[in-house]
Amino acid sequence: MSTALKPIFESLEGLFNSCEIDYVLLKEQTLNEAWLKDYSNQRIVNSFLFNYIKIQDKLGAGLFRKLLFSLREINNENQPMIDILNLLEKLEIIPSVAVWDKLREIRNVIAHEYPSEIEERLENIALALSGYEQIKLLFANLKQYAQLKQVM
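Now predict its structure.
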């Protein structure tokens, strides 16, 4: 595994493990206002959302560029994000730039929500759960690609 990629993959796997625990707990529940009022449930939600955001950030800000650099698809890691995403799509590492943009949009909505708006919060939790399913598949694809190309 590339020295630069190993700690990123390991960190992401740790975040996914934590996120998965909360994801399973959330999927087992009927998410509504009464459920969300319980502080223990809020902690599960907050843990899930925190890890979801961290996963997004670590993929976009770290792994994408370092993977492409390790593959020698880019000469330096200072490429604009749109170029990185277009290349990832061309190499079929991500399904499309639009998918990543949607996942990024979910992340931004979560980061800027107001917890007092219960209905909005419940909608955002549902969006994040759906986004997590997609990002988990995207990460598995990234990992498989890196293994196939022997950069990890």
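The chain has six helices and no strands.
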